[in-house]
Prior knowledge:
The complex is a heterodimer. By secondary structure, chain A is mainly alpha-helical. Chain A is built from 4 helices and no strands. In chain A, helix 1 packs across helix 2. The longest helix of chain A has 15 residues, at 38-52. Chain A is globular. Chain B is built from 15 helices and 27 strands. Chain B folds into 3 domains: 6-190, Rossmann fold (3-Layer(aba) Sandwich); 241-423, Rossmann fold (3-Layer(aba) Sandwich); 427-518, 2-Layer Sandwich (GMP Synthetase, Chain A, domain 3), CATH 3.30.300.30. In chain B, strand 10 (212-215), helix 8 and strand 11 form a beta-alpha-beta unit. A 5-stranded parallel β-sheet of chain B has the order 4-3-5-6-7. Chain B has a 5-stranded mixed β-sheet with strand order 12-13-14-15-16, with helices on one face. In chain B, helix 7 (191-204) packs across helix 8 (224-234), helix 10 (249-259) packs across helix 11 (268-277) and helix 11 crosses helix 12 (300-309). At the A-B interface, helix 2 of A face helix 9, helix 10 and helix 11 of B.
Amino acid sequence: MSTEERVRDLIAxxxxxxxxxxxxxxxxxxxxxxxVDSLGxxxxxxxxxxxxxxxxxxxxxxxxxxxxxxxxxxxxDSKSN
Amino acid sequence: xTDGTLRNLVPAAAERVPERTAVADRGRSLTYAELETVxxxxxxxxxDRGVRRGDRVGLFLDKSIESLVGIYGVLKAGAAYVPxxxxxxxxxxxxxxxxxxxxxxxxxxxxxxxxxxxxxEAGSTETxxxxxxxxxxxxxxxxxxxxxxxxxxxxxxxDAPPAIRSSPDDLAYVLYTSGSTGDPKGVMLSHxxxxxxxxxxTDEFQVGxxxxxxxxxxxxxxxxxxxxxxxxxxGAAVELVPQSISIFPVELARFIRDTRISVWYSVPSILTMLxxxxxxxxxxxxxxxxxxxxxxxxxxxxxxxxMELLPDARFANxxxxxxxxxxxxxxxxxxxxDPPDSIPIGKAISGVDVFAVTDDGRVAxxxxxxxxxxxxxxxxxGYWGDPERTARALQQDASDAAVYRTxxxxxxxxxxxxxxxxxxxxxxxxxxxxxxxxxxxVVLNSHPxxxxxxxVAxxxxxxxxxxxxxxxxxxxxxxxxxxxxxxDRLPRYMIPExxxxxxxxxxxxxxxxxxKALV
Lengths: 81, 519
């Protein structure tokens, strides 16, 4: 499974939101569509840390890294390397 | 100058500090003079479209400058505003619209089609006013009149608000909150109720024209009452905190610094995130001079760290269910050595009377545990359209004053401060949201395959509680199915985070579900 698919699964499994998994395309805006809220961000970060074995630093928590699934996947890949 | 209503706050500020910023949102702003003019225009428009004193006007849009224009326009038209959660599912919106009898709704371009798509009784919404645009939905069903708030406002004079008779006892707003029997209940607050708190808070925290107040809480949440109305009363600016920023603690810390917010008010969990991940120690100190929090318990170890990071700021714990505005408060003194395990909810605000009643109906004496009761000008008028529930919640004392029973168990400390101990019932807090676990159970039980369920709170250090559901089903049902079923009926903060499927649930000797055995 690609990083992007794994991130999509994490979001679908861990965050409660009103839409379907099909809507969660790589460039679907997660924040504007209220997929991720402030509590959801804590949940998502710990899920990502567990799934990929990386440490997400405070400075990493910026919109550029978390606005879409594509951006999260790119961020995870850059952290893993 | 004051007429005892919220209607007068902006006109007074516009006269005193016309060029000061009233509200700012990501670079856009309105001065008090501008807010006065545009809210006068909107009030005239609303009166022209049939809005009358005492009507309930819905507010359904993402928080923005237009939301504040809408609120003041509604109040100046003599009506009460009903702020709706922009993220609420259609069934809940529909319930509130019909329960409150919302015939006129203020909305935004992005939200107007959502409202038009609700399955409302024909004719229940007569007018949709789109505040932030010229055009909106293409098709407006069943005879709803659509008003483009931008250009239509120009037809009306902004010089003065409509001449409306008003009284401090008029309804100012209705805030819907979780109800244990399955439907949300509308808490009715009058101008007098609101101003009793607002005037106290403005004086106590010396809110003035040089201040910038945060607006972090959503408008359907009663913390927003302080942000909006204390700012207007003091001639201060309200800085709307974008939701996209409050998700990222480091960005939020920079936002607070860059906007020079001087008075912050929010639930503690957002401040905890700021302490844990905001890197406050690495930026130049923000201009914060007062940090107020309410809605849930602030873990003292994080509060302590925040106080160390902001040594010059005042810190205050404000307490009160929506039904009483804020009724007690506690100014947190600097901690010497280690912080205590918890802080009290403090003493009554001025003009308000609080006391505790024991299980056998006596007024509690020192050291005794009792249910906190509140009497005074901040206590609500009742629940909209529900005289029975109102009669249960508000009891008359010997002098015929309404006493609200909070359901919160408290004890009076030796130093005269009230200390919160817990709840009498199944109500919990999560991220400051008030949640009746029973309301979630009613929804889950309405699923055709659910035989029985129990919803419990799992204690959590940062968000106070997380929600877990134990479910017995008659046929295989996935967690996803139950989540989606709930999302159609409940706001997102009420959706259980954990589901556990069981063959049966433990029962007490009387056959009730033994919730304690599940936690």
